Amino acid sequence: MPIAEQLVLLAELANVDAKHRTITEKLESLPATAKKADEAAAQHKKSIDDAAAKKEGAEKLKKLVENEIHDERNKIKKWEARANELRGEREHAALLSEVGTAKRVIHRHEDTILEHMEAIEANAKLMSDGAEKLKKAQDEAKAEWAKVEGDMKQLKGEGAKLDVARKALLDKLPVPLVKRYDMVSAKRQGVGVSIIRGEVCSMCKRTLPPQLCIQVRKGVILEQCPSCSRFLVHEDVLKGQAPA
Known about the structure:
The longest helix has about 80 residues, at about 90-170. The chain is mostly helical and about 240 residues long. Strands 2-1-3 form a three-stranded mixed β-sheet. α1 (about 5-30) packs antiparallel against α3 (about 90-170) and α2 (about 30-85) runs antiparallel to α3. The protein has helices spanning about 5-30, 30-85, 90-170, 175-185, 210-220, 235-240, and strands at about 195, 200, 230-235. β1 and β2 form a beta hairpin.
């Protein structure tokens, strides 16, 4: 196979690999938006769970205080029932003092119950509002994933076509040349070929020796850039303008 033809095939191979890299990068970045939507839904779920836990805690505390009020009221009933049995003024006064203390305790507990009820109501509202936001966030995440799956399917289809095209090119090129190309490509961020424009390597931007550029343009040598080691292909060769 003429060297000029090998150069064209190498350039085509590099172009296929560049497209494949672009597809791979897109496949890696595509789920980002959908993952953010998942994170937003998870945050709403956590807010609902936190509100539910606080509501449950307030309900338990409210129940405990209600039990304490019940106990205090039972004490008052017993003390009031004994009041008629007491004849001593001192004992009667002490009993009234106990009743008064119990009533004050009940009053404080009732204030506490109101606080717990407010907490229960506030967290119930947070749960209700959060449920609507969670549903919306879950729907958005589902839609994002559906879009991502569609885009990924399309990109994988394009990637499969590129695989076929790459194999066809590899079958035409000499095996030793392909191995050299793969080695260079692996060391140069996946880019194994550089186009000469004028007398400049398009990848590393170094000016090349004029004689080297002429020989590559004529398609008589397979040469690598002295600076970046990539295989050199002159732009005129790709345009079919190189001299015979």
